[in-house]
Amino acid sequence: MTERLYHTDCYLRQFTAHIAGLSDDGLGVRLDRTAFYPTSGGQPNDRGTLAGIAVLGVAEDESGIVHQLASPLAAGPADRAIECGIDWLRRFDHMQQHTGQHLLSAVFEARFGLKTASFHMGAESSTIDLEGQVDPGAAAEAETSANRIVCENRPVAIAFEEAAQAQGLRKASDRQGALRIVSIQDLDRSACGGTHVRSTGEIGVVLLRKLEKVRQSVRVEFLCGGRGVRRARADYEALSRTAQIFSAPPGEVPALAAAQLEAARAQDKARRKLELDLAACQGRDLYQSTAPDSGGFRRVTRRASGGSLEDLRAIAQSFTAQPKAVFLATLADPPSVLLAVSADAAMDAGKLLKAALAEAGGRGGGAPGMAQGSVPGAAELDRVVARVTAECGGGER
Ligand SMILES: [Zn+2]
């Protein structure tokens, strides 16, 4: 088994170790001892170098820890000693987030009786899943408590105790033999094999963010230390850019944004009404300016290249609200068609168009007064227009 140096010293960054195993491709290295933390318990692996070669992954199996290298080790004696180094910025960041998790889990349990079901450390932020309900007020209270304990700079200690004798653990352990117990003074005792800072002060700021309901749990997003500061900086910059747009102090932005959105919705509604009024006028004008055929029918075919069928619907509606009227319109992109007929036209636009569309490989249909549909391309659109025109007459304009 690999001796895990981080079990007793999480601050060890440089160490010498002997090679204890090497994969055939020379990329998978086992050592007699290592300070590299493998991916486990919700925490990603450490990175760094072995004999100057980048370590990309660290995993554990029943035989110990395997370091995955970016390129093979140079040839040499099978059990030679090599120099190893941990990427300290990444490791310390992980120690801040992980110890912050112990702190938050303990605070949520002590203040609200909420147990932590799981923990995940992501590249940007971390989450804990709490069993029960958490409202924003409780989250803010937990955040305040956690930050107070950070300021108290309480020791975070590592001790080894026999599992059978270990008392007062936040979560019972089902392991046998020696347990590694990480404790925050007067707050928490947890069996854990991870990497932690040595005092709560080193966690730095604790920032709680999104609360998300996940089945019976609530997922609480949090960031500690440097991550919290960087996120607060990014948030401030986003907020101040928004405030500049409104030429207002950041605190007034939510109310201003809500008012602007409300005004935009009202304007949109008013504009839509004007568009419909205009289309109704256009439909009536079109009817007036269209000469009736020998049977007294006024027929119009409109071919539009852009816009939407919705725009044409209002014109069609007002055109066919008049007696003896047939209105056919097409849109080039996407290839689509609209047919409307007046109530006295003795035609069923829905049935008629549906049949024409089916023949041309398109789809659609509608009511006796108005129908619409789409076809695969321009040629099919022409076929639909030809068939509908043949069946209900009329010319293009
Ligand atoms: Zn831990």
Descriptive overview:
By secondary structure, this protein is α+β, with helices and mostly antiparallel strands. Helix content is 35%, strand content 30%. The chain has seven helices and 20 strands. The strands form five sheets. Strands 2-3-7-6-5-8 form a six-stranded antiparallel barrel. It has a five-stranded mixed β-sheet with strand order 16-17-18-20-19, sandwiched between helices. Strands 9-10-15-14 form a four-stranded antiparallel β-sheet. A hairpin with a 4-residue loop joins strand 9 and strand 10. Helix 1 packs across helix 2, helix 4 packs across helix 5 and helix 6 packs across helix 7. The termini are far apart. The site of zinc ion has 6 residues, from helix 1.
* Main β-sheet, spatial strand arrangement: 2-3-7-6-5-8
**Ligands in the structure?**
zinc ion
Strand content: 25-35%
Mean pLDDT: 93
- H/E element order: EEEEEEEEHEEHEEEEEHHEHEEHEEH
Unreliable runs, pLDDT <50, ≥5 residues? none
How many helices? The count is 7
